[in-house]
Input
Amino acid sequence: MGNLQRRFNETSSEAIRERISEFMSEQQCTTCHGARLRKEALAVTVDDANIVQVTQWPVARTLEWARAPVLQ
Output
């Protein structure tokens, strides 16, 4: 796959690019839904939020969440 991706990106031939594109498709992972993390990493949460969710929040919300007192 790496070789085909490199050839697709580096070729100046439209015919080669079209031929290689026949083997390419984008599909979202059914396990991580595009987060690109293993399910074990996504399972780790703090206050019911995993790392992907936290990084998608606006900065103000993330700061508020990070500064909140930890309940024991």
The first helix runs from residue 2 to 10. Residues 31 and 39 are 7 Å apart (CA to CA). The mean pLDDT is 91. The chain is about 50% helix and 0% strand.
